[in-house]
Design brief:
The chain is 66% helix and 12% strand. It is built from four helices and three strands. The protein has helices at residues 3-23, 28-37, 45-57, 81-112; strands at residues 26-27, 61-66, 74-79. The protein has a three-stranded antiparallel beta sheet with strand order 1-3-2. The longest helix is centred in the C-terminal third of the chain and has 32 residues, at 81-112. The two termini are 33 Å apart.
C-alpha cells in the first residue's frame, strides 16, 4: 500500500475493525489475519492491538479471556450495543463522505473533459 492509502486507512480502521467484530467475535491476531487476507497487508499487528485497547476503553466491545493452547489466555472481542451504535454512525458518515468525494471526482472529470 502506498503512503496515501496508509494515511486514509488510519482514519477508517476503527470502523473497519468494528465491522469485522459485527460479523463475529475475534481476537487481535484473527482480525489482523482477516485484514491481510483481504489486501490490507501493511497493517501491523501492533496497530490492531492498540486500536482494540482504545475501543475497549471507549466501551464499544465486551472482552472475554479464552484459554489458549500456546501461552496466556487470548482476549476475544465482541461488539456490544454501544459498539453497534458507533458502527452505525461510522457507516452513516462513510456514506456522506463517499458521496461527496464521488461528486468531486465526477465534477472534476467533467471539468477535465471541457464540460
Amino acid at each position: 500500500m502506498g503512503n496515501q492509502m496508509t494515511e486514509m486507512l488510519k482514519g477508517t480502521l476503527e470502523g473497519i475493525v468494528l465491522a469485522i467484530l459485527a460479523r463475529e467475535s475475534a481476537y487481535g491476531y484473527e482480525i489482523t489475519a482477516w485484514l491481510r487476507e483481504r489486501g490490507f497487508s501493511d497493517i501491523a499487528e501492533g496497530t490492531i492491538y492498540a486500536l482494540l485497547v482504545r475501543i475497549e476503553q471507549r466501551g464499544f466491545v465486551d472482552v472475554a479471556k479464552v484459554p489458549s493452547e500456546k501461552g496466556p489466555p487470548r482476549k476475544v472481542y465482541s461488539l456490544n450495543a454501544k459498539g453497534r451504535e458507533q458502527l452505525a454512525e461510522f457507516w452513516r458518515t462513510w456514506r456522506v463522505l463517499a458521496d461527496r468525494i464521488e461528486q468531486l471526482h465526477h465534477n472534476g472529470n467533467q471539468h477535465d473533459q471541457g464540460a
